[in-house]
Amino acid sequence: KIQEKDKTIQAIQEKDKAIQELKQENHKLKEAASEYQYAPTSYRFSDDDKYNPIKLREDIINLQHSLENYITKCKGNVEINISEVQNLLRKYGSQTTITIDQKPLIKAVLQRHVIEQIIKYGEEYFEFDNLHNHWKYGDGAETNLYNKTYEIAQLAEILASERDGIDETTRTLSIKLRQEVFAALGNRGFKKNINKKKHDFIKKNKSNLNKEINKYRKLKDPEQNQEVEVMAGEIIRKVVALFWFLIEIQEPVAEYRWFNCNSHIQPKYMEGTWEGDEINNIAVDICYFPLIECKPKHQIYTPAKVLHKRRY
Fold first, then answer.
1. Can you give the residue ranges of every domain in the chain?
2. Does residue 233 contact residue 192 with C-beta atoms inside 8 Å?
3. How far is CA 133 from the centre of its chain?
4. In 166-262, beta strands by DSSP E
5. CA–CA separation, 163 and 156 (whole Å)
6. 114 near 235, Cβ under 8 Å?
7. Could you tell me the CA-to-CA distances from 60 to 32, 97, 206, 244 in Å, in that order?
8. pLDDT tens across 132-185, in order?
9. 3-class secondary structure, 221
10. How far apart are CA 307 and CA 270, in angstroms?
11. Residue (of 255, 277, 267) closest to 305 by Cα position
């Protein structure tokens, strides 16, 4: 009887042990399921993703090269309106007197003006007054997506901060939403319609930009002029994509910053042609491409491009 009792106790203990092992295994499975459920909510782009920080830098450099090609080298068969370029330089705070031989300065101020003009076009387009256009023509789809994404993202932030509970899906919803929509806009925004017609925003402002820049430099060769003016549409698309979409994909959102004339030279944030031992004797004359950075992460995607002048 004692032996039978011992066997019964042993059997009960083995069952208890098996139950505990099953409970532990069940707990592990629940944890694994939870991790699987929330894995897709990560808002970081992988190394091979089209819109990781490395790709952002590549897009910026590509735009810089496109701007240089559009402005041209400003010599040879190029007529420069020095008085108008001088007025433009004054607009950006520089008191430097331009001569026809100062090609780098002429190109720099024109590149800055191209960017500023396109930003102006973009600000007008993304106003709410344009929201109705997409219903009939589809040409307002970008402004609708842009503005409504921010509306929904704000609601998602309220849901995360004002409703009880803790979960990764809700916490990252506004970030994921912003990244996905702006990645799509970066890919397709302002490209030709499927019927091969140019987007109205591009068509209209391509003409406007060419007329504006021709006030300052004109190409005497008709064939070369046509080749350069064709570039305007794609440059507009690239500038808008960068300043409205691509910097918004980063987390935290990246920012751009212009440096004013007479600012101190900061090699960490600027790119130019100075020597290290002359930093204290020079200052910014004109910044012709802004610094692209993420302040919270102290990350610089690309430095500002500047031309310097002597301090007096």
1. 50-251
2. no
3. 25
4. 217-219, 255-257
5. 10
6. yes
7. 40, 30, 20, 13
8. 655 544 567 888 888 889 899 999 999 999 999 889 898 999 999 999 999 999
9. coil
10. 10
11. 267
